[in-house]
């Protein structure tokens, strides 16, 4: 199998793991406050990947991976700061909007990542991807309307979109470090962003939930953030930030399906219109 096809497999596996994040987080948010949830998710990613690193080292693997260097420091700081802001916005948005809506809106990350890759990092964007960006943006606008007659937007949806913009910048920071060891990147990301969010959570008066919810959140963080980001960074090496984000587009559809199965909430007709437009955009983005 060619390196490019292997990278596509990594990107799709990363998407499948991340897809469980929104619906399961929505369940846990009944007992875990939003900022605390964001902290536990990233701490779970950091702890899980640190353990995986110990196992890898004992097995004598990963010796050829490059270490992060001083030139990576600005991107590392940016990555951690953005990963503090993004999940807090996402969890706050999930608390006030449906999980299915939030899952689909996560595809706006493709738009943010691609435009930032173009404007800041000079990655090329094809005509096909421009059309995909337009369709995904249109779908995101439809999903964000709370009341079409008064043109008011859902605050929860806007928070999810804000998270996507933060992750768009973060994806491009991570892209600049993608030749370095993905496991080291995820451990730094997990502990840096997790501890930062934990400080904010305590500062605003949130407290740790009961132990079962702490463990559930940590496990979710390891799977949906730790392993997902690990595979995502591997994919970026060959595909670049914009294209990897495009393959990642299947995650919201898996997440939306899980949400509908878990919560039995029948969406408004506008959701299905947005779903069809988003699917067309995701298809074009992934080609």
UniProtKB/TrEMBL annotation:
InterPro entries named in the record: Diverse_Substrate_Transporter, EamA_dom, EmrE-like
Residues annotated as transmembrane: 37-55, 75-96, 102-121, 128-145, 151-170, 182-204, 210-234, 246-263, 269-286
Subcellular location: Cell membrane
A cellular component term, taken from the record's GO annotations: plasma membrane
Superkingdom as given in the UniProt entry: Bacteria
Keywords assigned: Cell membrane, Membrane, Transmembrane, Transmembrane helix
One Pfam short name: EamA
Membrane topology qualifier: Multi-pass membrane protein
Stretches assigned to the EamA domain: 7-144, 155-285
Family membership noted in the UniProt record: Belongs to the EamA transporter family.
Name of the molecule in the record: DMT family transporter
UniProt source species: Candidatus Olsenella pullistercoris
